[in-house]
Amino acid sequence: MEEEQVGEEYLFKIVVIGDSAVGKSNLLSRFARDEFDHNSKATIGVEFQTQVVEVDGKEIKAQVWDTAGQERFRAVTSAYYRGAVGALVVYDISRNTTFVNIKRWLDELNTHCDTTVARMLVGNKCDLENIRDVSVEEGKNLAEEEGLFFIETSALDSTNVKTAFEIVIREIYKNVSRKVL
Ligand code: GDP
Ligand code: MG
């Protein structure tokens, strides 16, 4: 065993799931490049983006995966989930159906990943307060029932996007450190 820990590296695979057009790709581009894309290009996208985040002085590479439109055909493959240690499960606060479908996404996540995956329920588009269709309370309650973290975000105006990813990354890091000890 090497005693030196200098080269220690962490790479965490995080998946972003949820119905089409809830803002998954924009959450990712806001997190990784601080960009917002006003045109929805559901089928075009990169597989994943890597972003370095520092936790407790450790450099952590978050490899965040985007469904890149597969979800429209309910064809998110098992390869997409393979090796994931974190998940953002996203709905759109202005469209209740996307919130109702969260249960289905959690079922799918559970069939592919074990329960140790760090999960965050994300109510995106919180800038659309005037057409809100899912209350903050409903989001919180579901998260509590299902044992998820909960946050509302806006990829459009940047609200809580970084925080959402950072909470998940910190939780994964905690799980990993626990295993090592
Ligand atoms: P995806 O299909 O889940 O990847 O969703 P996209 O990221 O492609 O976004 C779908 C649509 O919602 C696009 O027209 C985006 O511009 C819009 N959108 C995404 N995030 C937000 C947000 O936080 N606020 C608002 N108002 N629109 C958003
Ligand atoms: Mg997309």
Automatic annotation (TrEMBL):
GO terms for molecular function: GTP binding; GTPase activity. The keyword GTP-binding applies. It comes from the Eukaryota. Keywords: GTP-binding, Lipoprotein, Membrane, Nucleotide-binding, Prenylation. Signal peptide: none annotated. It is found in: Cell membrane. One of its GO terms (cellular component) is plasma membrane. It is a lipid-anchor. Belongs to the small GTPase superfamily. Rab family. This is Ras-related protein RABA5b. It comes from Capsicum baccatum (Peruvian pepper). The chain holds residues 1 to 181 of 213 of the full protein.
